[in-house]
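Hi X.,

You mentioned you wanted examples for the new student's onboarding notes, showing what a folding record looks like when two proteins sit in one file. Here is a clean example. The first protein comes first, with its sequence line followed by its structure tokens.
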Amino acid sequence: MSRVKRGVTVKAKHKKLLNLTKGYRMTKRRLVRVARETVLHAGEYAHTGRKLKKRDMRELWVSRINQSVQQMDLTYNQFINALKKSDIQLDRKTLADLAINDPQVFKIIVDKVRDQTN
């Protein structure tokens, strides 16, 4: 069996790994064994962060809707319940955008919902 020298391959793998750790501090950037573990953890944190981002955005939309609805003497809970009863199928992202960028249209929606419940 012939001898296989892996220097070039290993160097390329290490270089690829160390390029992923650019911007990290101290030995996490320089040492291959530490860098490998750091990259694995970074991937896990990134996955978690993507999930948390969705949660944070929904929380922001709800708070914006709540603030706008409270100015019209309704609670967020009453507004969402009335929306469902009046069969208006707008998601929270759209409602929050309307509340911030187009208050007149949002007011029309609130009035329509209020008329349906009374």
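Then the second protein repeats the pattern, sequence line and then tokens:
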Amino acid sequence: MEIVPVVAFGVVAAIFVLFIRQNRPEIAQLLSLAAGVVIVVFVFGYLGMIVDVITELAVDAGMNTVFLKILFRVIGVAYLSEFGAQICRDAGEGSIAGKIEFAGKLIILVMAVPVIIAVLESILGFMP
């Protein structure tokens, strides 16, 4: 089970942060940020495997990979904006977190325009 090391690392880091926060809150915040980054980097390997499998399935099915690339980019923006917003919330900056989430949503909307256009063209193609 690959989740065990991630959970163990996270729990140990959280315990360290709790102890350090009493005397040095600024160091505790940096340790918390570093632990989050380490966990994300650890999980990136699995993300690459998922992308490879889905891409291979799409190519085998003869799907247009342009839309698949857009989908992966949208998912990446969603995860990154959520991660950034959570870091800001952990730092007590809820206002900045909200702006990051808004920017992520707007960027996703812009990235989705080619897909929306393709869907609308398909719908118009069915109409007499």
